[in-house]
């Protein structure tokens, strides 16, 4: 830890002592639920969350001692949590929570209060922003973060007058008070994530989704002006806010020096500003930074050109992901995707010309989907002949226009958030406007079979396996997949 701290001091201004009090930041266990018990278990993502190291930095800079506890790293996560609470004795516990892990977050907060009823519990994440009252009404949370939470914990600790707080909700006089949501306009003012607090060596992403381990995430921008009805914009909003290329390179250098071997860019719109994206690539090359990286979340097909892709390749990018969603134009238009099938074809073509791997995300059971359009999506994926295609059943997540529409139409069947998982049966979640669940699940299974069991794909994959020495891993992955 001392060596990592010394590395961190080169990139982050930190005090000599951390003696103001202990802060515990917790991420619920999610990997097994999300991936290991599903069809995509052979292609498992496993890397540290980005928000907790970012939040940690401003706390450290003010002299608080911070521990980040990723419960996903342990076979007995709640025993580890109990042990940590007893040994670390935090004055504040911050918990991050995507929608499906509501119950896990509540359990963590309950254990925290059981250990010490005076501990301040704070919940953050997309579900906290959408439904803060659900957490607050449990009685285990003191605050729920609304929107960006980079400095919220520090504000709670330093501000005695709750009325002056922003970006949070809390209970006062038995009423839930929701404060103003503000966003950071200049992202260069955000703290550099405290990666030295992470047990980096314990993370291992499937070879199918990474070249080297451990891999770590970076955000180079926030916000997306897109208007897709299935996407929650309540945290980062619609306005594109980029970090400078110099700031991005500084973060990358820190990540590599502290132990990451690969970097995943998590932006929604990394290539929104072509000049900035190209400059980042140029600086990677100029600094002679040698590491594999990929665009994890998927860039828009209407925001790239061949020059950019060629710079990607030269700078070490080996895979570009695209949010394609559907092979039917009417279905895409209905969810306000704002792209055309020809734009998708062109983006994939240019990426192949640049000799970069292609990864496509597809959604089945979008609102306008029928048997015919879902088959068109499968056929379109095969036409594109991507290196990796990932199919998922559409989930109307809280905070999206799709959820609001379905709720207004009486199509939401449950608010048991643990059922809101893309790669498990979602029959309990909602009723599709024009498809029964037997049909949806049939096409979900069919999508993987038709795409990956094509003779042409098997031959291409076999050649790649021989070339890269992954033949036995590929065979194991094939056996693990439920076709």
CATH class of the largest domain: Alpha Beta
Shape: globular
Count of distinct structural domains: 2
> What structural class do you assign from the helix and strand content?
alpha/beta
How far apart, in Å, are the first and last alpha carbons? 44 Å
Tell me the number of helical segments per DSSP (H or I, 4 or more residues long): 18
Query: Which percent bin holds the helix content?
Result: 25-40%
Quickly give the CATH architecture of the largest domain.
Alpha-Beta Barrel
Largest sheet geometry: 7 strands, mixed
Percent of residues in beta strands: 15-25%
What is the fold-level CATH name, i.e. the topology of the largest domain? TIM Barrel
Radius of gyration, CA atoms, in whole angstroms = 22 Å
Q: What is the residue-averaged pLDDT?
A: 92
Describe this protein's structure.
The protein has 483 residues and is α/β, with parallel strands linked by helices. It folds into two domains: 177 residues, Rossmann fold; 243 residues, Aldolase class I (TIM Barrel, Alpha-Beta Barrel). Helix content is 39%, strand content 16%. The strands form three sheets. Strands 2-1-3-4-5-6-7 form a seven-stranded mixed β-sheet, with helices on both faces. Helix 10 links the parallel strand 11 and strand 12. Helix 1 runs antiparallel to helix 9 and helix 4 packs parallel to helix 5. The longest helix is centred in the last third of the chain and has 16 residues. The radius of gyration is 22 Å and the shape is globular. The two termini are 44 Å apart. The model has no long low-confidence stretch (mean pLDDT 92).
């Amino acid at each position: 830890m001392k060596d990592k701290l010394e590395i961190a001091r080169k990139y982050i201004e930190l005090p000599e002592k951390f003696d103001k009090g202990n802060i515990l930041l917790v991420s619920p266990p999610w990997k097994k639920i999300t991936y290991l018990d599903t069809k995509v278990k052979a292609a498992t993502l496993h890397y540290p969350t980005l928000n907790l190291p970012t939040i940690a930095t401003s706390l450290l800079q003010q002299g608080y001692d911070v521990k980040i506890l990723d419960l996903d790293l342990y076979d007995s996560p709640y025993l580890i949590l109990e042990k940590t609470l007893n040994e670390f004795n935090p004055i504040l516990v911050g918990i991050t929570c995507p929608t499906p892990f509501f119950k896990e977050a509540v359990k963590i907060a309950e254990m925290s209060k059981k250990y010490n009823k005076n501990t301040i519990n704070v919940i953050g994440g997309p579900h906290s922003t959408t439904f803060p009252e659900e957490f607050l009404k449990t009685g285990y949370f003191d605050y729920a973060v609304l929107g960006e939470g980079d400095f919220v914990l520090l504000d709670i600790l330093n501000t005695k007058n709750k009325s002056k707080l922003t970006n949070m909700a809390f209970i006062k006089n038995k009423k839930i008070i929701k404060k103003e949501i503000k966003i950071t306009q200049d992202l260069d003012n955000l703290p550099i994530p405290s990666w030295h607090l992470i047990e980096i060596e314990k993370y291992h992403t499937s070879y199918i989704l990474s070249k080297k381990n451990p891999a770590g995430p970076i955000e180079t921008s926030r916000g997306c002006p897109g208007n897709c009805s299935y996407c929650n914009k309540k945290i980062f909003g619609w306005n594109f806010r980029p970090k400078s290329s110099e700031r991005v390179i500084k973060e990358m250098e820190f990540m590599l020096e502290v132990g990451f071997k690969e970097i995943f860019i998590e932006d929604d719109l990394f290539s929104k500003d072509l000049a900035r994206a190209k400059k980042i690539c140029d600086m990677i090359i100029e600094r002679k930074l040698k590491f594999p990286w990929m665009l994890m979340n998927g860039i828009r097909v209407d925001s790239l050109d061949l020059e950019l892709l060629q710079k990607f390749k030269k700078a070490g990018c080996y895979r570009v992901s695209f949010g394609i969603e559907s092979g039917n134009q009417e279905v895409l238009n209905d969810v306000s995707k704002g792209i055309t099938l020809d734009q998708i074809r062109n983006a994939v073509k240019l990426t192949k010309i640049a000799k970069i791997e292609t990864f496509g995300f597809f959604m089945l059971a979008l609102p306008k989907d029928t048997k015919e359009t879902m088959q068109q999506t499968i056929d379109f994926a095969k036409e594109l002949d991507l290196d990796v295609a990932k199919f998922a059943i559409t989930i109307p997540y809280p905070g999206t226009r799709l959820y609001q529409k379905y709720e207004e139409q009486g199509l939401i069947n449950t608010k048991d958030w643990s059922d809101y998982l893309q790669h498990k049966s979602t029959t309990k979640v909602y009723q599709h406007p024009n498809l029964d669940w037997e049909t949806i699940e049939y096409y979900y299974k069919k999508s993987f079979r038709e795409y990956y069991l094509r003779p042409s794909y098997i031959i291409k994959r076999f050649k790649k396996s021989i070339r890269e020495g992954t033949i036995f891993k590929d065979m194991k992955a094939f056996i693990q997949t439920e076709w």
